[in-house]
Write a structure and sequence with these properties.
Elements lengths: L39 H13 L4 H5 L4 H5 L2 E2 L7 H5 L7 H23 L7 H26 L11 H4 L10 H18 L14 H14 L3 H12 L28 E5 L13 H5 L12 E2 L1 H6 L21 H8 L2 E3 L2 E4 L3 H9 L4 H5 E2 L4 E6 L2 E6 L23 E2 L22 E5 H14 L3 H14 L17 H16 L5 H7 L3 H5 L3 E3 L5 E4 L13 H6 L10
Antiparallel strand pairs: 1-3, 2-10, 4-5, 6-9, 7-8, 11-12
Helix pairs in contact: 1-5, 1-6, 5-6, 6-8, 8-9, 9-10, 10-16, 16-17, 16-18, 17-18
Length: about 575
Amino acid sequence: MKRYIKFLFLTAPLALLGSCVKLDTVPYDRISSETFWQTPEHAKQAIMGVYGGLRRDDLYGKKCLHDNMGGLAFGWQESGYLSAMLGTANEQTTYISNFWRNQYDEIQRANQVIRRVPGMPIDEAVKKPVVAEAKFLRALHYAELISYFGGVPLYNESVDLNTDFNDLKNPRSTIEEVRAFIVKDLTEAIADLPVAWPQADYGRATKGAAFALRGKVYLYAKDWQKAIADFEEIVYNKSNNYGYALYPKYADLFKLAGHKSNEMIFSVQTLAGVGLEYGIPFAYYMGFRGSFGGGNFSIPTTELADSYENKDGSKFNWNDFIPKFNEDNTVKRKAFWATHTNGKLTSIPDTALLGKVYRSRDPRMTASLIVPYSYHIGFVANQVRTLQFVVAAGVSENFGQCRNNSGWYTYLWRKFVPEGNENGAMSVREHTPFNFPIIRYADVLLMLSEAYNEAGQLAKAIVELNKVRARVGMPGLNSGPAVLAVTTKAQLFDRIVHERKVELAGEGHQFSDVRRWGIAKAQLDGTIIKNLFGETHFTRKFTDRDYLWPIPFTDRQMNSALTQNPGW
């Protein structure tokens, strides 16, 4: 572990979780037990500091960009995980080191709470849920670590950073040992977390969130029956009424309208506005130049766009609408290309036909992506402005057009990208005020479907997957047409892969999914990233070593007990 974990700061405002109480910003290690760790408010402030760390760039602040590595998107520079896509990452790559370091920073914050709160002179009814929250968050961080690195060193609450700073040299535990540690934390958290918090504490971990995370850990371990039991607990309200449900408007889940809905099982809480800059940089990372000055660090691939089905559930094929589109790049260019003079269009393609192409598709497509010749409400020169996505040379937000920051002719994200300035709710591009879902109900339904399928319960698996499709009006599997027929485990697995791709696009799940399924190399290596015209941007590279990231160089220098992952 790194020596630059020096101080554990209480940095997250309680306002992020609904409270209006001002949070202290004094370092933990400079506060004596006589001045802190004394009151219920201190306990709450301490756990808020742990939640606050989730917003860090290399934790969940850039988690949406992990889909760049998973094949659904790509970025134009290293901060968009370019080296991972090109296969040039190494043990000194910054985002890998930061990911490792930040996870352990937050684990140590959680450890501090778990160690100190039980000894506080306050009521047990206050202590128990706070300690349970810290165990939930510690489990979350360890679950992320083993997904990306395999077995990692375990440090529990017995480690006091103030006294043990120079002795954090544990060897790597096996992935099975770390999973057992995670499951123990989550089992204890389940016992002491509430089913729900008062509205003023919205966003704090709940019993249902702990069940969902434990189910995910079991799923990743291929312990299907235990995963099923945990997912069924919250889907079918076995012991409590958890109240989770699919939000009726898919597109609104990723905007202010639905980001606090009962579909969100656990999410990173945000707040933005003048003097309240505690958002996530969605505008900056996923937006385009006219969307509050975005930078296109994540750009949806044409492969993702073309994977959205027709509304009847059949596979989409451009040739069904435009003859020879798939075979001829000149046909592609003609289908999209426009010309203009200072923003005034002088020629346009058949936009009525393009509109027909996109309107005939799974509604999640246009909810997630800005497609050619559609509109988006941008924010230009401090003014709300409607912008059109025109595919042409020299487009500009000043002309009322969506501009790809790197000049590429590609799709753009709509998901998580703010509209205007969100009616004054945001003031800078780095702080978009949308909560980021770590686990939401649709994800759980798809994980339950997967566990059922792997356990040989095909009919039950189809029921859960069909719930997700029904929310957006897509026909269910085995609902009549031959194109929707599913009769085998392998067929349903392919459907689950597809459904997770289009349902969760932009939420950072894909990279972990393709690696845990063992299909990352087949799906990513040699894949050519192309623009709308079929022209090549670059070719992805993914080798066997990339199933796990390397243990960072600096950590191995400081801790000789750390072994390296294969191939690095």
